[in-house]
Write a structure and sequence with these properties.
It is built from twelve helices and 15 strands. The protein is of the alpha/beta class and 355 residues long. A five-stranded mixed β-sheet has the order 4-1-3-2-5. Strand 10, helix 7 and strand 11 form a beta-alpha-beta unit. The termini are far apart. The relative contact order is 0.10.
Amino acid sequence: MPALHNRINNEELKLRMLAETTPRITVSFYKYFSIPDPNAFRDRLYRLFSQLQVFGRIYIAHEGINGQVSVPENNYAAFRDELYGSAPELNGIRMNIAVDDDGKSFWVLRMKVRPKIVADGLDDPDFDPAKTGTYLKAREYNTLSEQPGTIIVDMRNHYEYEVGHFENAIEVPSDTFRDQLPMVADMLKDEKDKNIIMYCTGGIRCEKASAYMLHNGFKNVFHVEGGIIEYTRKAREENLPLKFKGKNFVFDERLGERITDDVIAQCHICGKPCDVHTNCKNDGCHLLFIQCAECAEKYEGCCSEECREEKNLPADEQRARRAGRENGPMIFNKSKQHPLRKHREEWKEQRGNME
């Protein structure tokens, strides 16, 4: 019986994955449904998926399942059948195939039981995430989005919206999904009779958001079926105009998949057109930010001169400088309030005043 967690060094696992010659497919899926015993459900799936060499992240909660995985192409049918057969509610669920990917996105299987598959901060016992808005396929989205008065809402984080979004979509300016839910309801409180389309990367956040909006009295709520990933696949398949512009941010090694050639973001350091995300190479920072090739070379992959300097210090000096902040808000910070982003906004304002 396979171990119910990984026991091999991550670096070794990554090297093994990169050495594979069998093609892989990156696929994401989710479903809101009741799971009485998430731990038992998790362990059963872990055994099955380990045998099929499935890598990736799968979260399981009482409210459902959410996964993004890499599957050997020759095992994909077996993986799909095992998932479909694991619960009646999962039979035939949509599988979102990545649109710009070689499958080398994960190298270990991590399956975790969580309180919720999408943290929402809600404790209302009457809220049912399964009572969602109306699905929109790609063609339906294009039609409805062009109707006067339609409101399009991006339910992703600011760093996702920044590199790509649907035409005319509004951003909900918050750093977490749990804050976005009450914020978007308040932002649109006077628009309860209008058509409101919600979207996200793969559908899981906007589906719950659509249920929340209906729960709060909004009448005509829609969400893009399968999110940006499925919309793009269908639009290309049916030769439809792409209403999404730029890059779709993804939560794996790629940090983004190209949807159109439009570059709508700028380097966070110099302001040149750029939509390449990276993490600061300083181990005391790891800020997620956008950096052009020239700045990457100049700052050695760091987000600032200070981080470049710190990265090049001897290890003991780096540790001493980071003392007291290693678990602080600077580590892996994606917030709009990060000092670099504040500096970037000030720089943009200054540049605008000079033009």
